Fold each of these.
Amino acid sequence: MNWTITAPVLSHGKNYRFEPVTNKHHETIIKYCMSKDNTGLVLYMQDMLKSLCTDCTLNIEQLPVIDQVFLLIRLRSISIGTRVDLVIDQETNDDKKSTYKASLVEVQKSINKYYLQPINICDESTGLTITMHYTNEWFNPSIKSYIRSISVADKKMFANQLTGEQIDKILDQLSTKAAKQLTKTRDQLEESINQMVFVKLPDKEYDINMGHDEYTHMLRVLYSESLNNFIELMYVFVKILNMQLSDVMKLTPSDTQMYYQMFVKETNEREKANKELSSKQSQGRDVPSFS
């Protein structure tokens, strides 16, 4: 049995098991992060989550986007590391930058703190009950994407089983009061995301919070790395440590860094020992002079 990671799907209220992110995944993510292809980046992340989840019944695309982001943060924190360095330009000096460390453990706590459960809207004039939750659309979400189900009497219809046209017809029947409540609830859900802290800035009067328009930028911050640095690291393992590239690609980035640091430590200790030995041999060859 392979090692797996436990990660909660917040909207389901239960844990699922995922295999860790490997160097093979990380290399592809880095390449997407270097491009401006936000759609490609999201599609790859979703495909990666599907392939890593041990439960094939979990429909990643239907999960709220904030749930998907939470899973990616969770996998990143365990497979790569719990800290992320964020460089920010100073407001008073364009040439000066400050580096802040984001704790992904704290980010997950903040998401859990402000995460809202589904909200029901009851329309007395039609007898309809509409259940709303976070959108599952990454880009320009419509208000329909916040609807999870529509109930009337004892009949419950899930939004993913209805066409957009069918939902539009149902929404057209709503009273003005219920329609306004729909918009208000959408805004309430988005505001809860805006309260989730991504990076704390102790020396400023504000923090960097999450937001729907910032999701793809956040993914780049979480997973981005210099492709040159990645290739150089793979070169060390293949050419110097004589490992097969296919085997290195199966390692997690965190394990790779640990092995690399051990290699650097052993190399430094060996060089130090060789210098000390060389120094002793040099002193032993010194011949005293006679005056």
Amino acid sequence: MLGLASKAEHDSWKAEINSLKFVTFGLTEKNLIHLKNMAQEWGAEIPNEEHLAKCIVANFDNNIDKQGTSFLGIQTYSPNRLSDSAFAASLPGYFLILAADIVNISKQLELLGVVKYYWISRFDSMTSSYYCQSLAGESLLNLSINSDMTVSCYCHDNLKEGYIGDLNINTLEEILDGEIAVSFRAYLAQGVFPTSLCHTCRDLRQIPAYVAKHKAHNYRLPETIMIENCAACNYSCKYCARRSILASRETIVISKDDMQKISLTLSRCNIKHVEFFKLGEPFLDAEIEEKLMILKEHNPDLFLVTSTNGMLIDSASKIEAAMAFDQMIFSVDGIDTRMLNMYQVGADFDAIMRNVRTLVNAKKERGLIKPELVWKYVVFSWNDSEDAIEKAFTLAKDIGFDKLRFTLGNVQQIWEDRSKRFFYEDFIPPDINGAVIEENNWPNDIVFDL
């Protein structure tokens, strides 16, 4: 620990901690437990809550992106970013420094000269190797077939850094056993990230070197896969990388012939679960109903999930397509059109909810409990007021959603847009009668069963 803080600073931090449901900057109670367990495993000093409360992670990995990313739901920054003294000076409090190379740490510390506090841990030589659940066939969400039939190991791969093969050239089995996938596993086992995206991925696991070596040569076919039927979108969302997404795809919409090939692949590989979305709007595909039927033709027991903005489910064909899903996640980030358009530019709240009501009525008329309808409400600084959250509960129950899920908006570049109330105990109004069915589903999710 370097530097000293005044008693007033410590007291003010403690007061802030006591008023929080979760600790600031994405550090949930589970994160704290995880960090302490890792510290013990590494043989490093165990930080206390006071240190972690005002903590930003400085991950000394040259692959980390310049703007920063997330580690265990915690904001992280690269040395390059932290070398901007004005930026570093604006950050609060303690730094948790994850340093793979303790010998060269002094050079990196020079970049942090303006920072008041930091805590140093190191990766032990026995635990400095990794494996990827996506490449091991164990992932529930990452391995994906893109709109041009290429295959990626990462769900947010808008630049195809996670490209591992092409179904136009090879089978899925050949791709997973191919040169790129094999080299990715080998790099991870050696403690090297093969792409700049790896350390942001929820499927990355740090394990002892001898286990990583075993994992690199022992993997299986996946039980779940993502299918990006369409890479385009009808929205123009703030922060969206649509231009780079479209530029990286040779084909924007999967053809029916290609969907037939995918369907046979799923059957041959015994894949039973499909996440039918990725970086585009699934219902922008005019032939979505036919393509879902193609998937079901060879895979009648297939479990289908999609994520949609809900704007385009407004025709008989689209409604029938929607009814083919087991679960539908509606991304609606607010309680009215004005609020939605702060982020989801092009959204019409009333039109979306009208479409959801149509699906609720269709389920009732047919005596069905599926698809399960989930309202995903991404929380920002402009849509997190107590009134907005309370109204979201009221609307969700009135319209007929099955679940309401609040997700912290991942706005790393503009802190003013990041919700602060999400971490406070009174984020959920006290009179809400909805059971929390899952917390920390992803790093910052709270899901309510309605």
Amino acid sequence: MIGNPEDMMVEAVKRATRRANPALEKLLEVHLRLNANAGFELAYRDPKRFKDFVNRLFGEYSGRLLEMLIVDEIKRMLEIGEDLENLEKAVEILRMIV
């Protein structure tokens, strides 16, 4: 298991994008680097801003789907059954647990 909460979030984003479609990982990474001057760590550092960039790239529906996949990956990594509704709550849990 990855111990650093930010690293865990980055890994969760990578896993989620691969689950959705392996091509999405690079696409999202390039989009974030060009437009947000950040990488997947933005999901941990500023989840709302991360979601805004994801929604701009993929649309609101697909952005929400990716968010749910990321949250699911966090739950798997932490081995928790807690009902997490969104990325912000997942980051809050990561900051408390890890």
Amino acid sequence: MTLPPIRDWWPQLSIDARRTLLDGDLPHLTDTVREEIREITGAVVGMQETLSDDDLDYARAEVEASEE
């Protein structure tokens, strides 16, 4: 089980899930976020999955771009 590329699921992720990822300081993805990613991509996301620094940079850039 691996985390699909963030570009495949971030645009469809709910606002609540995005906030959880960006505002939280949890080391791993929450059950809710993992389930949303599974629904979007069809991939089973493991309990130990985390976002890489590159993933976080992408997510933050997407949020900034949407606020302009």
